[in-house]
Design a protein that fits this description.
It holds the Pfam family SH3_4. Keywords: Signal. It is a single chain. The chain has 153 residues and is α+β, with helices and mostly antiparallel strands. Helices cover 16% and strands 41% of the residues. The strands form 4 sheets. It has a 5-stranded antiparallel sheet with strand order 6-5-4-1-7, with no helix packed on it. Strand 4 and strand 5 form a beta hairpin. The protein is elongated and about 50 Å long.
Length: 153
């Protein structure tokens, strides 16, 4: 009886550890709305209710894949469904606050190249390193922003 109880408890603990390890190993996945705007729905079907249209270039966090559909989260935290084929692997980020300083180098003391407003779309030029990411504004200017100051990473 005691052996059975211990074995049951061990299995439960092993399962819990495996579940936590699996959850920790899943990285956050972001995609960008492709060349054309996409419709975001309340269900994984074109027959679902249309919530809004996501513009070209908008970053979306992939929460769940379901066949040809993905459940996504936008920068405001809203959840919706869209067809996966409308998304691109290209990476963009969005400024989280007004007057975001895009700097010449990844350093708090570096000169700001441009200031951008909250919600401005920036193309990710390189993968983030430490606390900085290199971005490019639509006017062509490139620089660095802190990863904590943008959404989409």
């Amino acid at each position: 009886m005691l052996k059975s109880a211990l074995l049951s408890k061990f299995r439960w603990m092993a399962g819990a550890v495996l579940l936590l390890a699996t959850a920790a190993s899943h990285a956050v996945d972001f995609k960008t709305v492709g060349a054309a705007p996409v419709i975001l729905y309340d269900a994984p079907s074109a027959k679902g209710g249309k919530l809004y249209v996501a513009p070209r270039g908008m970053p979306l966090e992939i929460v769940l894949s379901y066949g040809e559909w993905v459940k996504v989260r936008d920068a405001s935290g809203e959840m919706a469904w869209t067809e996966a084929k409308g998304l691109s692997a290209k990476r963009n980020v969005v400024a989280r606050a007004a007057n975001l300083k895009v700097r010449a180098s990844p350093d708090d003391t570096a000169s700001p190249i441009i200031l951008v407003d909250k919600g401005v779309l920036l193309e990710m030029s390189e993968q983030p390193s430490s606390n900085w990411v290199k971005v490019r504004h639509k006017d062509g200017q490139s620089g660095y922003v802190k990863t904590s100051e943008v959404w989409g990473l």
